[in-house]
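dude i think i finally got it to work??
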Amino acid sequence: MESIYLKKFLENVGYAIHALNTICVGLNNIAAGDVEKPDDLVITWKPKDLKNSSLISRAFAIKSTYVFLAEATYEYMNYVKHTFISESNLEEYNELQNSEKVEKVFSVVSLENKYRLVMMKLLVHTRNRIVHNRSKADLSSRERDILKESKDIIYTNHSNLIVDDLLLHFDKNEFTLKDVSSHTANTIFMLREIDKLFIQKISSKKVIIDLINEYSVLDEWEKILTLEKSESKTKKIRHFLKLYFSFVDIEVLEQLSKEFA
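look at this
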């Protein structure tokens, strides 16, 4: 079972990867000279070197996808943060744009392969390097060692991805289609694990209220709570919870319905 937040993330990232692949196919045709700008396309486009223009555009598309992937991850984590970050730290939480916050959030996942957490840090660092020209975001020596020590499993899990190449591309800020595809696959794996924990943790009234606030349906919820205690009120509460939290175990929702009533 997937939360609505994970489903939205998968939908958005699936769209991004499809768009990237489509762009790359089109750019290959441009590089081959098989292109002519339509007369009704009102843009200025007169490249002197089609192949070079194609390579530059491909690099831009890959970098854009990296940023999109990172931002979609931040968006997902922003919704589930209530279950992983203490109340005292919530106000200081500002997405996942540094290595310490990635460690704090994703360390809750029990991982057989430590490289997956390092890959999440590398995604954030890559995003920061792309967005901020002066960024010095980097992995530690130990984190690089973890990736190198895991080169065989990474090669197997990520369609023959070579760790040394991945790190070289990061150091040079020259990313490939395989790089971003591998980061996408790893991020999906990690968020699926987070999502399982998130759903398991939705068992208290406080978490439900926090999420209702995130949904921006607090007014609707409070109107139901103002009703006098009755079987009708309990049914309305149950319907509301099932409508917005259909991904939560039905027995948990039934118990919460009784507690709120």
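Residues 4-200 form one domain.
im so relieved honestly
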